[in-house]
Write a structure and sequence with these properties.
This protein is an alpha+beta fold. It is 47% helix and 22% strand. A hairpin with a 7-residue loop joins strand 2 and strand 3.
Length: 166
């Protein structure tokens, strides 16, 4: 089963710094990193900078369309007009079918704000107690949602189809 986790940091550089830790944990086989993205939000900016980690090119990678839609729902819908917001609302409903629900979106939106950063990870085969022990020293806050195998597959199919039609 894959898990989408969001690690929030109280400074704009915290998520980037945590990448070394994640890579070390993967080398120790304490987790399998399927895909990842970083959000940095400097205090003086109206919106965050988002970046998919392109080093994740394996079969498990969800791709830019997934991250683009997720980050649009999280950070950009409040900045757009009502018509675009309504369309994104419909897409948000479809994302709940694959395990990303309104509670998750609301919680991330409330916690990832100017002056913070976040590391979004799609992982599997996590040795949870050891990974959590490693992250304790980073002063990160964990927000997570679990995806079942069926939900993950449905998510992959949705974004594979979207990618093919573009």
């Amino acid at each position: 089963m894959a898990t989408l986790t969001v690690w929030k940091f109280d400074d704009p550089g915290g998520a980037r710094n945590a990448l070394d830790l994640v890579e070390r944990l993967q080398k120790q086989e304490l987790l399998t990193l399927e895909d990842a993205a970083v959000v940095t939000w400097p205090e003086d900016r109206k919106k965050p900078k988002t970046e998919q980690l392109h080093s994740m090119k394996g079969a498990g990678a969800l791709g830019g369309s997934f991250w683009g839609l997720l980050f649009g729902l999280l950070f950009f819908v409040p900045l757009l007009g009502m018509a675009v917001g309504a369309a994104m609302g419909a897409l948000a409903g479809s994302m709940s079918d694959v395990g990303i629900d309104d509670r998750f979106i609301k919680e991330v939106r409330e916690k990832v704000t100017p002056g913070t950063s976040a590391l979004f990870l799609m992982t599997s085969r996590v040795v949870q107690d050891k990974v959590l022990d490693e992250f304790r020293g980073t002063q990160a806050e964990l927000i997570s949602t679990n995806l079942s195998n069926e939900q993950e597959q449905k998510l992959r199919e949705v974004f594979a189809e979207e990618h093919e039609t573009v």
